[in-house]
Amino acid sequence: MAAACGSPSDDSGSKGGPKGETSAKNPFGVAKNSKVEACIFDGGYGVDYVDYANQVIGSQIAGVKVAVKPVVDIAPELQPRFVGGNPPDLIDNSGEDQIGFLSILDQLEPLDDVLEANNYEGKKIADTIYAGVKEPGTFNGKFVALNYVMTVYGVWYSKTLFEANGWTPPKTWDEALELGRKAKAKGKFLFVHGKEAATYYQTLLIESAIKEGGDEVRLALEKLEKDAWSHPAIQGVLKVMETMVKEGMFVPGGSGTQFQKAQASWSNDQKALLYPTGGWIENEMKDATKADFQMTGVPSMTLTADSKLPYEAVHAAAGEPFIVPTKAKNAAGGKEVLRAMLSEKAAANFSKTKLAPTIVKGTVPADGYGSSALVAQSKMLEAAGENIFTWNFVGAYGMNTDQLVPWNSFLAGDLDAKGLTAALQKISDKVADDDSIEKLKVS
Length: 443
Fold this sequence. Notes:
This protein is α/β, with parallel strands linked by helices. The chain is built from 17 helices and ten strands. The chain has helices spanning 48-51, 53-56, 74-83, 112-116, 159-165, 173-185, 200-213, 215-222, 232-246, 259-267, 281-284, 331-341, 344-354, 372-384, 393-396, 400-411, 417-432, and strands at 35-41, 65-71, 90-92, 138-139, 142-143, 146-158, 275-278, 295-298, 314-323, 388-389.
């Protein structure tokens, strides 16, 4: 993969600078017949949706070609290229090994001009996208990551399986615990996890804790406070999770199982009832999902009936962060690819083929192209109203790789809730105490 993403872009012109004349159809000054090197995270959405830009970009600038190269381990493969001064023109900085944004903040192009430009249909891009899209890609006041997919997080299940057994998706953790016991009586498990995705349960933990304790939980984590992971709301959820682990409600062996194989035991084999993840899950598992599964999502569980946010509150944010390095040989081309992806045609193609919404409004029909998961995401967003939240500290500081270790141990039953809390706090404290790491400005 290092070799696959090691070839330089077209080397005409100066690094990062415009190479062609700017115009209404070419706002960034991309040279005709130039090449754009795009290194894209090869995860749940694949990479073909970026390659689709080749089908529309020619309508604006003649001869521009996008060379799309899939990457799984983003940081190990691409950080050396930042150090070497020859980064790709466009990167989807996603996945478990994403590059911490603050570590390369001064090496990234601001992307405000992309939103100020017109799309391929002649409309200002800023007017065609959902509100709040800039926030998750803004670090210390600098908008450097365009998150393309409107990701809705929740707890996913088979509507068919639940209806056949008379089960109801749990709204509280106590209900989830009771459901887990019913599942065991039927020879099934409540949850499953895979080694690379163990922190999906951290996401679920934080979601429920924010619902229970309100914004103070999010702020404590984001600010890397010394006792953030000991907040009563977090500990309350962890206590129930620990009980579930002890009672054998997780499919055994997850910490040694590749995550998609683990997920298949839920989506195809139906060994487990629930799986906490984002809206990409249907597309990611489309080749390993039982017929008539009817994948459906609901919001994460609340801890008590007196939670500060209602059950309907949902964790949702623009995801799949695309960045354009300043020292890229065709930075203007990288921005143009983003403009192409934000065209109505490309956005509709993404939703139809990936069964997930982009940040471009009005491109998903009411029937969700026949996708129960896409319909569920729309319903969750509608029901949440203003109660939509997210957080940035894990991605901003590149913590996920370190956090996977204690989470795998916890879910395997080798680490208790107290040990997990201490391990997560240690990871946060390490960042907080390192003066060389620029800190997020949190509000």
